[in-house]
Sequence to fold (1170 residues):
Amino acid sequence: MKKKLVSFVVVLLALVMIVTGCSSPADKTGGKNTESPKKKILRANNGSEPGSLDPALAQGTHESWILENIFEGLMTFNENGELVEGMAENYKISEDEITYTFTLRDGITWTNGDPVTAEDFEYSWKRVLAPETASGYASILYCIKGAEAYNTGKGSVDDVSVTALDEKTLEITLEIPTAYFLELTAFYTYFPINKNVVEENPDWAKDPATHVSNGPFKLVEWKHNNKIVLEKNEHYYNKKKIKLDGIDLDILEDQNTAWQKYRGEEYDLLIDVPASVVDQLKQTGSPELEIGLQVGTYYYNINPDVRPFNNAKVRKGLSMAIDREMIVEQVTQGGQIPAVGVVPPGMEDENGNDFRKSTGDLIEYNTEEAKKLFDEGLTEEGMAIEKFNNSNFVILYNTAESQRKIAEAIQEMWREVLGIKIGLENVDFQTKLKREQSGDYQVSRSGWMGDFMDPITFLGLWWSECAFNDVKYNNPEYDALIKEAKSTNDQNVRMAAMKKAEAILMKDMPVIPIYFYTQPFTVKSNVSGVFKVPVRYPTITYADIIE
Amino acid sequence: MSKYIFKRLLLSIITIWAVITITFVLMNTVPGNPFANENRRIPENIYENLIRKYGLDKPKSEQYITYLKNIARFDFGESMRSDAETVNEMINRGFPVSAALGFEALLISLIFGPILGTIAALYQNKTPDYISMIISIIGVSVPGFLMGTFLIQFIATKFDWVPIGGWGEFRHTILPSITLAMMPLAQISRLMRSGMLEILNQDYLKTAGSKGLTKSVIIMKHAVRNAILPIISILGTTISNLLAGSFVVEKIFGIPGIGMFFVNSVFNRDYTLIMGVTVFYAIVLITMMFLVDIAYTLIDPRIRLIKGGH
Amino acid sequence: MGGLAFKQDMFEKVSRKSHKTVEIKRPTIRYWEGVWHRLRQNKLAMTGLIILIIMGIMSIVGTRISGYRYYEQDLTKINQAPNSDYRFGTDELGRDLFSRVWLGTRYSLIIGICAALIDFLIGVLYGGIAGMSSRGVDVAMMRVAEIIYSIPHMLVVILISVVFSTSGTGTSVFILILAMTITGWVPMANLVRGQVLQLKESEYSLAAESLGASKGWILKKHIIPNALGPILINVTITIPKAIFSEATLSFMGLGLQPPSPSLGTLTNDGLAGMAVGRYYQIVIPSIFISLLMFSFNVLGDGLRDALDPKLRR
Fold:
């Protein structure tokens, strides 16, 4: 028996040695594309499989990141991240700021050689709005006159005010002046498609062989759930600005594996970096890490129909008890910015200053005041703290690692500062949405990403008529200010109204902002020209690889 | 025999119909819809356009009948989350990938499982038994997501010839198929060990031994043949699970198989895809079960397909 | 047929109750004594048993030893490597991993054992009945099992845990176990049925049947003891399987509700630290899982050897 035990131990030791022997550091050199050193191919990961590469049907970043490289709108972002004319040579805005006239460039063609015409634009936009197309993102075109009526089946296609006056001229009439319309024309739902190709083959976007686009790159290969290959478009009018010969995008969902591939020199750029890695890179001061600006706010919805959450003091108390600095430093670790309002930084006000800065901090962290306000609020509602604790209140969040950590941290902060017991409940995203819609929640995690650089994309959310106003916030004073900001192009009036509106909102605190999103990404040091426009994924169109 | 096969076929169709019905009820009980998206919120009127496009505005009973009709023609419909592929195309593309990987894993576990088990049984409570035990304990005690991540972290990043993830060449399959094989390998080796031990102690083997048969003949002729029976009984599910792919392994290694669909379709409420993969899985499983039953009768004449006849 | 004629009055009807059918069994008490005796001889199995007992006790008292409660966070002390204060280090929220790992062990044990027990009970009952019944009943029962089993496991688990999650508590441990066992018992039933079919036609069963033993009696006295080996092995596989299923669900974010940890959720949490070299966060819970598995496995093997009637001398 002794002999057996000895041999057992020996085997165990051998196994341990094998495992530990593997963990000794060893450098890996391969991975560089060796087959043709002249070609500059940027390798990155697209995360998940695109649902469609038809701009009308695309819905998220895993689609738009590709679309932004293979299509181009009337306006586009240049290599410095500035909004400039793209397909349009120039544009004219009418006196009343309602009519836009775009003149297209000469010599712009599709990847199949056809010229890009104003008619293509008219056709594409009307196609997005057609109810049969069922574009999930059609609402972004609603600022065009007649668009919403057509899309919702109440109006006719002929009343949509997009007209190709001739082959080169496109005229658009808006419902009301929209300050950010030019920027919208760079958004992917506004990208044109080739009318002839689409009418001939409705399945054109499914196969790289039939896919036709007008951007700096073209789609050459799409292995579903595996990889997407883009190649430089030789027909592109501005091709001398494009340094890359192609872009290879993996479709790899696992964050950790993707990071290992980046580390193993298989990617030149990585967007979805694990939080723990971001923290480590930040602490070691890695030059490869960049914290990109994002326009998004992470907040908690508070259900006003549940006592005592109807009380503003209770909500403010909850908000004040959250140490947001601690959350972004120790919990999320992705360089996020503690929220001091609902509008994230990066948007300009009437003087060209940052809207966030000029509005100032509207949220504070103060544990004593928090406790005081919360207790007062509870007393006003005639609720004892024991009653609160026995009410089985929960923070509802959708299943994801990051949401869970934040919820756990906030749960503990509320327990420590306010002495309250509140549970956690994770459900899948779909269930959470349903529960929010039916008001079956107390506190629920939410967030909003801006589509364009104007504070209204955030402040408009709590307008009483907004479909996404989950907490059903309804304040006539607030509504009046939002209406005012929406109906004019006078930046002085708009910004003043929106600043006032945000102050009111943060006084009532129907939602508790936690932090402003950022987008950390890593780029190898031999890659240049990658930058981030806040409303987009990092732009790789103008990247260059230095050998 | 042909009568038996016909009967099985008929029963299989009933089984699949029952599976469709249960799945239809279950998936319609779960809150949510295919068009809600984490990044994007869809306004009510656009949502209406979408449900009209996919026929979800029709009454549930009508949707159910439509499903049945289409499935009878093996048409699983359009995925509600992807405009690039139909459900049929997704399965056609993903299944060969998952199946190739599953087959490799099966091969590994079918070769090494019985060997390990046999060695363990022959050297009961001796060193080889313990080695085999340790391997099977690793197999059953390290969850796939851990095993996969460990393999990537400690093997793939150190050796150039094993890629970190992706799909395309044979070398891409090495780590994922090992990860997949660990569990069935362990199971098979343990079943083999216990089955062999049981048989080795039975009288007829002792008789065979006393008749002067050599040990290896005894093992091959009697022990292995008998011990393989319980292995075959688990093989049906093992094979279909391997063929249907694994969500965990496919996610970690970035493999474009169908394993992911089982989980993602539910999270996305992609009704047509849920239905498609469920029916597909049921067909694979039923086929495997049938084959296993046949194999069972071939190996063990004590069990007959139809009483009295053979 | 010859001159001998059978008449009814030549025979006497014997009821099963009035007559002891077969008396070729050994006393039960001595049987279990023998099992225990043989099990004690098996050093490996005893090691497993002792580990399990220690882990079982520690999973109850271990959460109180360090002085830190499992939910207490200290965001200034996140990701600390094991030290004298935090024996197993702290997690990403500065919680004491020592307390959390023991609590995780408790939940994993509960989930594993409950799931295996339910699978075992339903599986043996269902498979036993099917195997002993007439062909028609057998086929019908197996058809039902097949239908249940033909629905992809993960699909059922996710759907059940979503459908039955109640607002306020979410997916409770009970729902989790239910979701995992709702299809999990089928392999056990198949195994038992297969064994029963095989053993039913064995000489001793046939002998017992011809001696007038009832089906239940044969099942209880002959078939189950003989099938116990494979069944027990299957149970020892079912426990880790259930613990795994839960761990895999954690990987998909559907595991146990926080802040209650299971070994599965702890390992899953630990994955995040692996990329930056915080191995203790993943290695410790992994070792715990492996220890549990090791113990269940060697104990199962030992039990098998000890129980196996054919090994009795």
